[in-house]
Fold this sequence. Notes:
Elements: H1 2-7, H2 19-45, H3 56-73, H4 83-107, H5 116-145, H6 162-165, H7 181-207, E1 221-222, H8 225-234, H9 236-266, H10 273-298, H11 300-303, H12 310-319, H13 323-358, E2 362-363, H14 365-394, H15 406-431, H16 438-472
Helix pairs in contact: 2-4, 2-14, 3-4, 3-7, 4-14, 5-7, 5-10, 5-13, 8-14, 9-13, 9-14, 9-15, 10-13, 12-13, 12-15, 13-16
Amino acid sequence: xxxxxxxxxxxxxxxxxxxxxxxxxxxxxxxxxxxxxxxxxxxxxxxxxxxxxxxxxxxxxxxxxxxxxxxxxxxxxxxxxxxxxxxxxxxxxxxxxxxxxxxxxxxxxxxxxxxxxxxxxxxxxxxxxxxxxxxxxxxxxxxxxxxxxxxxxxxxxxxxxxxxxxxxxxxxxxxxxxxxxxxxxxxxxxxxxxxxxxxxxxxxxxxxxxxxxxxxxxxxxxxxxxxxxxxxxxxxxxxxxxxxxxxxxxxxxxxxxxxxxxxxxxxxxxxxxxxxxxxxxxxxxxxxxxxxxxxxxxxxxxxxxxxxxxxxxxxxxxxxxxxxxxxxxxxxxxxxxxxxxxxxxxxxxxxxxxxxxxxxxxxxxxxxxxxxxxxxxxxxxxxxxxxxxxxxxxxxxxxxxxxxxxxxxxxxxxxxxxxxxxxxxxxxxxxxxxxxxxxxxxxxxxxxxxxxxxxxxxxxxxxxxxxxxxxxx
Length: 473
């Protein structure tokens, strides 16, 4: 939606969605998605076990509605005056439905196996497929909508009234026409991506079998959501993990959201930015298995150091803009982004195990941990977008012109180099105090297994005594 709005030439406010309207829709949509996270966690934690599991029904039920809302996000309605409201409604709906899928999907890792290595392997496989899915989705959408874009040339000397200047180019197709070629190809692309959504849920349903809470004892009672949320926010390992990766994720968001602008305006690489983005995605997808092997051998806290690899090369690119260096920075950034994607989702199950050991007679906390962490990841994305938008707006960024001001170029350099570096270093410093080590993980696993076996023995003894009493009667 944002692409469809911003790629088209600006027209009078009553005929076209302005960049401000698009930003407003994105901000409100992200906020609504973040608010949905704890709500989703509450309802999912209250769910009962079914024949297909406790989490799977949520993912199956919300997917068709997610596909419909996604399609209408890219549909151009025939009316004009209410288009902002139209896109706001369907984008907020899409964000909420995506949350209802993402929370149980991410928590599903805890219900696949009790073995820590198997869960780590499943997490690595999931993150690899997510990055590949992003790459495939971007390629599909890009190829389908490529014919909708006319050759775009930036404005060398933008007039004072940029909006009125577009009236001098009547040869451009009108993208606000629901029957235009642009509108049609975007709807086709939305339909194709929607089909990929449906294919993905079918593969998930047929290929993944959810197991009942493997650590739950028969006498366990579900922790009330508010109480569980309070205990989660007070759990030391979770607080340190969340605080660390909140900063790191914000840094990665800043790097991703400003990389294209930096290449276009500060490094004069506007003809290469698409290939640079592909390089980042391919590097991230290919390197996730490497990081999985690395953390298995050297530990997860040690693997976190790989997130900092992008810092020196990003600083070099800022100070010495160069095409070859830009591709190398893109490759290294992909390595660091892969580590930042894999590690928190690999460490979160360890935090849940640690919490389980300290609260042995409570269950249902998995969705609380995962829903709150999804909330913090969305918060980091919002913070990153907010910092970028505020900085560029303050320095006078003007979309569509060839040469930005020196203040804008300096801001882009800071957003690419200095700010992510500081955030990553502070995040890694906090991670030093993360108490769960490889040794403590093994101790926790053994303690949970002993707790489970001892309780099963007690239950079997109680059942035996009950059987003897009944026989005597």
